[in-house]
Amino acid sequence: MKPWLVLALLIAPPALAQQTPSVLGHPTPVVQAPKTAKAQKPHTATKPAPKPAPKPEAPPATAPETVTTTPPAPAAPAPPPEPVIGSDSKLPLPRFMSLNNDPVNMREGPGRTDELMWIYHRRDLPVEVLRERDGWRLVRDSENVRGWISAIALSARRTFVVQGADRPLRSRSDDTAPPVAILKPGVVGRIRSCVPASPWCEAETQGYRGYLKRDDVWGVGPNEAVN
């Protein structure tokens, strides 16, 4: 090897690792979601697309009639709707819960003989309970998939899933607070507490604890209190 080539290799600076800047002067940890699929869909035959219905013919144009009407009196304000209570749990509906097992089966109906729709492999994934029937719960997940899950596969433990984009887990409930970690979409964690009047929730995931905007995650209502 030529001497000048050896000298160039010795003085060349090593490539810098890509880091996430932090106001603390240190790289902010980045929390990734597991690479395993959230759910597996059983194989089903593809149904042929239905043929479009013929468009109805437009009726002939006619001159508009002039009708004079008296405006109705303003209606009285409707009373607030009565809260819906689950037939099994006697708890309010809808409400958030989380998957207690791995795997968890989602079916088309409330029974073990009903067709299997999805197999979830994400313990602690939040779901919203919509209905109850004989030990089964009709739930929807963060992607608006709906189906029936056995009640014993659900937990009252409150969790969240990050959606849309990277979200900062901050050291305080303040937009200017330094981030403890950056959470990637799909990260699941625990909700420790939420104050109804506050847009922030205290949360933790994979050993990091801090504050998240409730609008940045799925698994908690807009003004819901979590203790």
Note down, in words, how this protein is organized.
The strands form five sheets. A five-stranded antiparallel β-sheet has the order 10-9-8-5-11, with no helix packed on it. Strands 17-16-15-12-18 form a five-stranded antiparallel β-sheet, with no helix packed on it. It has a three-stranded mixed β-sheet with strand order 1-14-13, with no helix packed on it. The chain has one helix spanning 3-11, and strands spanning 30-31, 39-40, 84-85, 92-93, 95-99, 104-107, 116-120, 126-133, 136-140, 146-150, 154-155, 159-162, 167-170, 179-183, 188-194, 200-205, 208-213, 217-218. The model is unreliable at 2-21 and 44-48 (pLDDT under 50). It has one helix and 18 strands. It has a domain at 88-158: Roll (SH3 type barrels). A hairpin with a 5-residue loop joins strand 9 (136-140) and strand 10 (146-150). The chain is mainly beta.
* Beta-strand percentage range: 25-35%
Task: Tell me the number of strands.
Answer: 18
Number of helices: 1
Gross geometry? extended
* CATH architecture descriptor text of the domain at 88-158: Roll
CATH topology descriptor of the domain at 88-158: SH3 type barrels
Strand order of the largest sheet: 10-9-8-5-11
Largest sheet: 5 strands, antiparallel
End-to-end distance, in Å? 69 Å
Structural class: mainly beta
Q: What Rg do the Cα atoms give?
A: 27 Å
Weakly predicted, low-confidence segments: 2-21, 44-48
- The proportion of residues forming helix, as a percent range, comes to under 10%
State the CATH class of the domain at 88-158. Mainly Beta
Average residue pLDDT: 84
